[in-house]
């Protein structure tokens, strides 16, 4: 019996490795471009703090960052925001809703071939500037657009 | 089990216009139910878009994205028949993945 033990252990170990190998694709983070969900940035209560954590505190205003959003949003629960960065080699875009309780709403990282464009519906608690910061070549380019909200979309 | 996403990917030249709808409550943690108890935060945090296995786009999102999120993306240099995979992961560790071919 004693002689069986190492073999059994080996077999179990083998099974363990195999299971881990099978599960790895499911358990491993599904990311590659970014370091994963940035808890500190998303947990920031001011736009300035969120952008600082993202390394985007010092940005240049740019007309090449285009925000298409309604001037007046009747329903703050669904505000469509369309963003295009015409800055060459844009690698990421951060969307900040300045007056929301947690201003950072989204950040997108673009790999080769992905056009630095995104359209997304967001919630806005009250009228606010929406600020978009695009990163290209280690520099940050920003634009802002004010959206007036008739009925807020965070609480209720 | 998360409901499947609805994905539409249409080629215009060599750019695919991708539109995806994800079924998710996107609870902010600020709303109350009928009894006045706070509904806990429950929202998608990460979105990954792959073409033929290669990550082309990643999104990190907050509870500020609307319920049943809808995104539009544009992917350049793809062709008809390419395999488009979109996956999300939420703050409870639930995930969903849908695969479609670019039309």
Describe the structure.
The complex is a heterodimer of chains A (156) and B (103). By secondary structure, chain A is of the alpha+beta class. Chain A has one domain (39-151): Sandwich (Immunoglobulin-like). Helices cover 23% and strands 38% of the residues of chain A. Chain A has helices at residues 4-27, 39-43, 47-53; strands at 60-61, 65-68, 72-75, 79-85, 90-97, 104-110, 117-122, 128-136, 139-151. In chain A, the strands form two sheets. In chain A, strands 1, 3, 5, 6, 8 and 9 form a six-stranded mixed β-sheet that branches. A three-stranded antiparallel β-sheet of chain A has the order 2-4-7, with no helix packed on it. The longest helix of chain A has 24 residues, at 4-27. Residues 27-31 of chain A have low confidence and may be disordered. The mean pLDDT of chain B is 95. Chain B has a four-stranded antiparallel β-sheet, with no helix packed on it. Chain B is mostly beta strands and 103 residues long. Chain B has one domain (6-101): Immunoglobulin-like (Sandwich). Chain B is built from no helices and seven strands. In chain B, a hairpin with a 2-residue loop joins strand 1 and strand 2 (15-21). Chain B has strands at residues 6-12, 15-21, 44-51, 54-61, 70-76, 83-90, 95-101. At the A-B interface, strand 6 and strand 7 of A face strand 3, strand 4 and strand 5 of B.
């Amino acid at each position: 019996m004693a002689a069986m033990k190492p073999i059994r252990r080996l077999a179990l170990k083998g099974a363990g490795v195999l299971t881990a190998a099978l599960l790895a694709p499911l358990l491993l983070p599904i990311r590659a471009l970014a370091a994963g969900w940035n808890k500190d940035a998303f947990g920031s209560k001011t736009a300035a703090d969120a952008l600082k954590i993202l390394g985007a505190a010092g940005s240049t205003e740019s007309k090449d960052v285009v925000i298409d959003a309604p001037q007046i949003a009747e329903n703050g629960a669904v505000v469509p925001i369309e963003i295009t960065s015409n800055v060459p080699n844009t690698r990421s875009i951060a969307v900040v809703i300045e007056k929301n309780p947690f201003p950072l709403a989204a950040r997108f990282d673009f790999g080769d071939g992905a056009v630095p464009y995104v359209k997304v519906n967001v919630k806005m608690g009250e009228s606010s500037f929406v600020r978009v910061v695009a990163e290209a070549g280690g520099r940050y380019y920003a634009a802002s657009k004010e959206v007036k909200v008739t009925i807020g979309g965070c609480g209720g | 089990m998360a409901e499947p996403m609805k994905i539409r990917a249409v080629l215009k030249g060599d750019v695919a216009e991708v539109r995806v709808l994800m079924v998710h409550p996107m609870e902010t943690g600020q709303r109350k139910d009928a009894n006045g108890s706070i509904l806990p935060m429950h929202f998608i945090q990460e979105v990954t878009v792959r073409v033929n296995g290669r990550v082309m786009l990643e999104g990190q999102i907050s509870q500020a994205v609307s319920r049943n999120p809808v995104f539009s993306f544009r992917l350049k240099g793809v062709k008809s028949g390419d395999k488009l995979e979109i996956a999300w992961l939420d703050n409870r560790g639930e995930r969903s993945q849908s695969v479609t071919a670019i039309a």
